[in-house]
Description:
By secondary structure, the chain is mainly α.
Amino acid sequence: MSDLKDRLMRTMRANLNHLLDNVQQFEERGGFRSLLHPEPAPEAWENIGQNPGERPQPQPPARTDGPKTLRDYYANLEIPYGSDLATTRAAYRSMMRRYHPDNFANDPEMESVATDLSQELAVAYQAIESYLRTGRY
């Protein structure tokens, strides 16, 4: 069962990191402003005539185990950065239904993983909720 637990945790962390990287890349490209006023990317002109396989693939930045940021909390809840309170609440409730420890009562290892995950989700929801209500988290 520890293999299942490790696989589940690795998969969830990989998905959360991927979501966070996508949000950061979107904001680096200008966010919604770039959709309203698109400009050609300067590197796009350099790659004309090359096959897609010839270009080096960009690597995501290395994650550190430093203090959590607001982006990390949004990624934990698997919602886009800047979502409103209703979206945040719906995502939190959905994930808590899915990963509640009572759902894994027959398996003590998975129950402990679910307990840790539900605590992380609760912290993320409280941080985002306090930020949306007061402007601080």
